[in-house]
Amino acid sequence: MLSEQQHMEQSEKKLVVLGAGESGVGAAVLAKQKGYDVFVSDSGLIAEDYKQQLIDLNIEFEEGSHTEGRVLNADIIVKSPGIPQKAAIVKKVREKGIEVLSEIEFAARYTLAKLICITGSNGKSTTATLTWFILQKAGLNVGLAGNIGKSFALQVANESFDYYVLEISSFMLDDMTQLKADFAVLLNITPDHLDRYDYKMENYVESKFKIIQNQREDDFFIYDIDDEEILNGLRKYKSKATYIPFSQQKILSEGAFLDENSTIIIKVTNQPTFAMSINELALQGKHNVYNNMASGIVAKVLELRNESIRESMGEYQNIAHRLEHVAQIAGINFINDSKATNVNSVWYALESMPANVVLIMGGVDKGNDYNILKDLIHSKVSAIVCIGKDNARIHEAFDDETDVIVNTSSMKEAVTLAYHLAKKGDTVLLSPACASFDLFKNYEDRGDQFKAAVREL
Q1: Into which CATH architecture does domain 12-101 fall?
Q2: Per the database record, which ranges form the Ubiquitin-like domain (predicted)?
Q3: Are 204 and 194 in contact (CB under 8 A)?
Q4: What is the pLDDT of residues 239-289, one digit of tens each?
């Protein structure tokens, strides 16, 4: 938290937010509240609801380009995680020595809440939401933010939570220097999306391990001891925190492990041992056992009752339209991610998926830059089924990255075609990257139509 003196000093400071999505607009709202001279700049078009928020608060903004002189005149830059470090404007900002922060780091300066920071290549959204659900059901005053829900900065501006569960991507970690995680959770590290890291795995691993930087003796580091990249990273990156591992391969004296491959056991110092059959978990699958272990350790360290944790793990349901598991038909999983109305959201959805995805995408394109998706499309997507009135830019972006790209004119047609393109073990993922207003009322209507079409197969 900042002192009164620092508050007075910042009132004259110029703060520029690069990117006017959920995190950027949230950062702008908080900065305005804290007395900064705020300007928002987005090289693309700003969604109407975000634009209206800025207008209502009399926050200056521009869209369609960055006015270089205005940006480079800033004292502080809050950068959207979706903007690469190699972007021309970011390079110029760094050359000038202007302080660059992520929205998460900026917001953390203005809250005394405990921060439960969750990262990993896969399972972040599920583990963050599950952790929030367990804590909230147990009666804790807890918010959910990061790459999920309303932005952390907006919640810090408008709410007063005692805890925040934050889903943190490597992109966010790249712009963090001072943030301290009271709980740092590292789920896994797999060699995906390395285009942002000069195609060097060690750079990506370094980014993920920034989750433990600045931790102190009274903090906790919760990690998957079965993950080879994490084990390698542990030799290089150190935290002063208490280390608590989880494993499906080893019996541990402290942490979470499987007893006879069927029961999750969680042992935390000075707390009653927790035990729950994996068959009783609401979220099934090997990867979800890991996710439940990580969430369970957080809950045990916070001294929540075993009955409460067990109840929450047994009845948890993924949030609607955000990586929502709809059904498994003929061995094919159908996932509804209709809430993914921009490219970044699709990136996060694809990074959490196993390989062999049939991707349903398209709609009202707001000038999307599809470049950040190319590597993931190439490595994970076997076919793209376009839904929307104009799919030319999707074809243009991904013709060389996947074998099949087809157009459809209704959700029912898209789901039926995706079903025929998929094989047993594949995933059909609705993650549109676009607004829904050409064929649907909103993203909820689009997701509901997807679920209805799946159930009719």
Answers
A1: 3-Layer(aba) Sandwich (3.40)
A2: 205-264
A3: yes
A4: 999 999 999 999 999 999 999 889 999 999 999 999 999 999 988 777 789
